[in-house]
């Protein structure tokens, strides 16, 4: 069940509770915000070790960091170093904008090491 489905059914999930510990909002208000489409909690069940964040109305501003390879430069260790630097600087989410090299392998390694929501642009492949 997704966070939205849970919120619409009146259920406060473990991920919502985690967001409440990091945000100035109580659980029911967060659930209502999700149900109303004013807040999202990206929490892919396949993202092991994820630290969920809430994004939207009434929550603190989030910082997204962009990383990624290109057709001229594709080095997984360099992408992991970028990821570490972004997380060390306080990024709340990461966007992998890779356009070249071994995109699948890079994404797999970044995902394995990324505790925050990770977005990608599949059309780049």
Q: For the residues shown, what is the average pLDDT?
A: 95
Give the total of beta strands: 5
Q: How far is it from the N-terminal to the C-terminal residue, by CA?
A: 29 Å
Radius of gyration: 16 Å
Class based on secondary structure composition and strand pairing:
alpha/beta
Task: For the largest sheet, list the strands in their spatial order.
Answer: 3-4-5
Low-confidence stretches: none
- Tally the helices: 5
* Shape summary: elongated
User: How would you spell out the order of helices and strands?
Assistant: HHHEEEHEHE
As an assembly, this protein is: single chain
In this structure, how is the largest beta sheet organized?
3 strands, parallel
Tell me roughly what share of residues is in helical segments: 25-40%
The fraction of residues assigned to DSSP E strands is: 5-15%
In words, what does this structure look like?
With 125 residues, the chain is of the alpha/beta class. It is 38% helix and 12% strand. A 3-stranded parallel sheet has the order 3-4-5, covered by helices on one side. Strands 1-2 form a two-stranded antiparallel sheet. Helix 4 (76-88) runs parallel beside helix 5 (103-113). The longest helix is centred in the middle third of the chain and has 13 residues, at 76-88. The radius of gyration is 16 Å and the shape is elongated.
Produce the secondary structure layout.
Elements: H1 3-8, H2 14-22, H3 27-35, E1 39-40, E2 55-56, E3 64-67, H4 76-88, E4 93-96, H5 103-113, E5 118-120
Parallel strand pairs: 3-4, 4-5
Antiparallel strand pairs: 1-2
Helix pairs in contact: 4-5
